[in-house]
Specification:
This protein is mostly helical. The protein has helices at residues 4-36, 40-55, 88-114, 126-132; strands spanning 135-137, 147-149. 55% of the residues lie in helices and 4% in strands.
């Protein structure tokens, strides 16, 4: 046919356009996947925000300011509860964490008092010492903005 040359020209342009489109889709798809990956910290923050919102303490906030997690919940029908119940796992983890904090504070306190620094070369553990330092304001030099560390 007489228009065969014209069709093949369009086919070539269409193929180039199609390859370009596929390339763009791949780039956009990869970019979208990378932006939707959530770190553990992001998940924790979202869960913490959700727990605070479920308590209902900040119910006066406009719905457009609430997180995306609660956008699908009808705020008028949302049941408000005074506290979020802790699971046994959360209670156990919290208790363990508090015990570890107390033990570490006591260990640092004793090492600073007795001079036993728990280091092989008999030097102080710098991180433990920093944890034990308390910054206080000297009332005699308040206007000079001097701080003393004890």
């Amino acid at each position: 046919p007489g228009n065969q040359h014209i069709d093949s020209e369009y086919d070539m342009n269409d193929s180039k356009d199609l390859l370009e489109l596929i390339g763009n889709i791949d780039e956009y798809t990869i970019a979208m996947i990378n932006t939707t990956k959530r770190s553990t910290e992001d998940k924790y923050i979202e869960e913490a925000i959700e727990a605070v919102e479920n308590v209902g303490r900040f119910s006066h906030i406009n719905t457009h300011c609430q997180s995306s997690l609660n956008e699908s919940i009808d705020s008028a029908n949302q049941q408000l509860v005074p506290f979020v119940s802790a699971t046994t796992n959360l209670v156990r983890l919290n208790t363990k964490w508090q015990e570890q904090l107390k033990a570490e504070k006591e260990r640092v306190r004793r090492s600073l008092i007795t001079g036993n620094y728990d280091e092989e070369d008999n030097t102080i553990n710098l991180q433990a010492a920093k944890d034990a330092i308390v910054t206080v304001l000297n009332p005699n030099s308040y206007n000079q903005n001097n701080f003393d560390s004890y």
